[in-house]
Amino acid sequence: MTHSHSMKRVSVISISEKMKIPATKPEAWFGCRHVQISLMALGFMCCYAVRVTTSVTLEAMTNATSANPDFEQFEWNNSTKDIILSSFFWGYVCTQIIGSIIAHRWGAQKLFSIALFICGLVTLLVPAAAKYSGWEAVCVSRVIAGFCQGTVLPCLHTLLSKWVPMDERGRMSTFVYAGGWIGNVISLLSSGLLSVSSAGWPSCFYVWGGMTIVSGLLAYFIGKESPAEHPSIPQDEKEYIETSLGVTETEEKLPTPWMAMFTSIPMWALLVTQCAHNWGFWMLLTKIPSYMASVLRFDIKQNGMLTALPYLTAWLLSFPTSYVSDLLIKKNVVSVGASRKICNSIGQWIPAIALIGLGYVDKDHPQVAVAILVIAVASNVAVYCGHNVNHMDLSPNFAGNLMGITNTVANVCSILAPLIASVVVTEPSNALQWRNIFFLSAIIYFLGNLVFVLFGTSKIQKWNDPVTESKDKSVTEAAVENGYTKKGKINEGVVPE
Questions:
Q1: Quick one: which of 233, 263, 270, 332 could link to 32 by a disulfide (CB 3.0–4.6 Å)?
Q2: Helices (H), 4-31
Q3: Which parts of 63-151 fold into alpha helices (H)?
């Protein structure tokens, strides 16, 4: 089969057929793809750490007695703090789709590295902004950080779709995205320790801002867009990745099939389940500390450690979960589609059941509540082998664009979840009100996954390659006019020029 850059010869073999060609594992157990994956995971860890450290550090900034009293305290009320925390998402929601378009046309690796660098830079400036310009300037820095991070998920999905072979997709994608979970853990624990240290609360922004800048520089100088653009990748590894993904080199930039995407039922199934996931994830991340303090009566020190515990457990579980998922696919025990739906069901239905159980635990059994929370959050990590890699299944060419669309809508749920929780839970010590919000989240989890199970798929969609699709159609018509039939020369792979 040939595929020249001039595009004069047209291959009629589809990508799905290419993927059936067996890919031979490269000799080296640690290759260039592993370096690229590590850079992505480091960058994503820093993204989440920058996001979470602000919520922890704000308490030290507004209550000097809870941290190092030698540093300035700001008289910001709860309303102002909520505005600062939400300001990140104002920028974050705006750049998902724009970021996916830029990543597709200009290059995901460049955009990813620049986004990390700018995000780290504005994080470094937060202490100075707070001191000299007040909370409004802090909001501006958070909006800019949100703008930058809005491009990160589309970039990561675009890069993963080019670098990760099919039989490694579950575990490598999970490794990258689980970086966010370990970022949560390290940030929750380190921010408290840094705030009470001699370096004070500004050190939280300096440490994580500096780390994010470093990760951006590493991504810029070491990161590569694809195996084809890596100057020193071993030939056997390059062939392994490209054969597995069914890649053919072409100079053409594919037009983005927006209409086909928005009329695709599997895309809508993916969008619905991603919205359900975001609702549950941010509900747990933002509201559980309040639940622990108000209902279970844990003090602040216990609260920080117990809030981090479920995310640490989830990160540890992500490795065996993703490995088993990929192994079952590789051994043909389950199909790719079945694996995605099983993992997604574990990641959303088990937390749904756990949340219902949590609603019936009273303050006399805090250990039971903590155990249920660990189960709810830790099992949620299975979605990274479920719907979270489904964008790449549906369309390797437009995985970043798909993530941009679904994550834009899903992040509206990220914003709504804590707001609606505040409306429902008017008395934080009222366990019955918390039960209502847990039940609501369980229903959303259940319905979101049900839609994915019924209407989701792992099959590559026809609109993944719009150029080939249109050329195949015109080639077929031309061939028929010239006396060729579907049983004849068209199926031989090359149509006469």
A1: 233
A2: 15-18
A3: 78-94, 96-105, 108-124, 126-133, 135-150
Amino acid 24: pLDDT? 77
Write the DSSP assignment of 347-378 as a string of letters.
HHHHHHHHHHHHTT--TT-HHHHHHHHHHHHH
pTM, two decimals, is 0.78
For 390, residues 6+ apart whose C-beta sits below 8 A from its C-beta are 266, 270, 340, 456, 458
| pLDDT-derived band at 342, boundaries 50, 70, 90 | very high
Indicate the pLDDT class of residue 20, thresholds 50, 70 and 90. Answer: very low
Neighbours of 98 (CB within 10 A): 15
Burial of 420-446, coded b for 16+ CB within 10 Å and e otherwise, reads bbeeebeeeeebebbbebbebbbebbb
Beta-bridge partners for 11: 494
Q: What is the DSSP string of 286-351?
A: HHHHHHHHHTS---HHHHHHHHHHHHHHHHHHHHHHHHHHHHHHHTTSS-HHHHHHHHHHHHHHHH
Q: Work out the number of other CB atoms within 10 angstroms of the CB of residue 238.
A: 19
What is the C-alpha separation between 483 and 346, in angstroms, rounded? 54
Q: How far is CA 212 from CA 15, 142, 219, in A?
A: 37, 14, 10
352: nearest Cα among 364, 344, 362: 344
Question: What is the identity of the amino acid at 358?
Answer: L
**In the chain, what are the helix, strand and coil shares in percent, each to the nearest 5?**
75, 0, 25
Furthest-apart CA pair in the chain: how many Å? 87
- Rounded Cα–Cα distance for residues 443 and 230 (Å): 46
Sorting pLDDT into bands at 50, 70 and 90, what band is 300? low
CA 362 to CA 289: how far, in whole Å? 16
Q: pLDDT-based confidence at 399, cuts 50/70/90?
A: confident
Provide the pLDDT for residue 467. Answer: 62
Which residues pair with residue 494 across a beta bridge? 11
